[in-house]
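1st attempt posting a full record on here, be nice pls
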Amino acid sequence: MPPKEATEKVAEDQSSFLRSTRKVRDFFSIPAPVKQLFDLVPVVTYPPNQVPLRAPKPARIPSLYVFSKDQDAAAGRPSFNPSCLKWQTFLNIAGVDHRLVSSNNHSSPTGSLPFLLPAIYGSNTSQDSLVPIASNKFVKYATEHGGNVEESSTMRYGAYQSLLDHRIRNAWLYTLYLEPLNFSAVAYPLYVSPTSSNSLVRASISHQLRAAAEAELLKHTSIIDTDDLYSEADKAFEALSILLGDDSWFFGNDKPALFDASVFAYTQLLLDDELGWREKKLCRALRRRANLVQHRERLLVRYFGGP
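the predicted structure (as tokens):
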């Protein structure tokens, strides 16, 4: 194409593009009568909506949301859930003042309990400082807020923590959810009954809980061997008993720490007769270790006011 014709073609394309752009702009522009109306009635920016009434409420001290009965939470009694009880005990040990709030997973921003809602210190408290804190940040929170946090630096720590996270937890899942007598006597009134009065809803939740426990156990084995689960938990209790020895606290510490809270989270619940255990294999395995029983009693008296 000759240069002159090419130049004319470019100019024509640019003109066509500008005409199309004006049409699009005109299409989305506000008609003059409407614009005059908006000029007379300016746009008003409303403040953000208030937090829903059922949402967590900030308080003058941090609020720890846990599985608990309302009356037990009000009295500061131990949670009936091991994960919640571990961190409830840790905060008590660290000296972090807090209040308990009876809750469930549906109210948690992370989908699980526990979580901590920081305290509100006045009208100037920023919204960013009221973001719920997940349990994996509790140690950091306690350290930053004057908590007395001490933890063992021994290389054996991870190995013994593994006993709790796997052998004892697996046996706990089985004895609570998959032992029929214990599910009816313990798990059902704690986790199912409070959720609904509808029998179909309760049946569905029961199935979900048992299925979730079974699926968790099958992550580690192709079949669920009951005898093996209890045998491994028994060995784990023996190892913990040997580790504790004649000391008051694990790893020879002068005061309890996070590991003590982790052990207490299971020993307290297995030794709590008020929960109504019917099948007591795991409870008996623990009771055979007198120093673990005494360890539980020391923590119960010191941080929860006794039995």
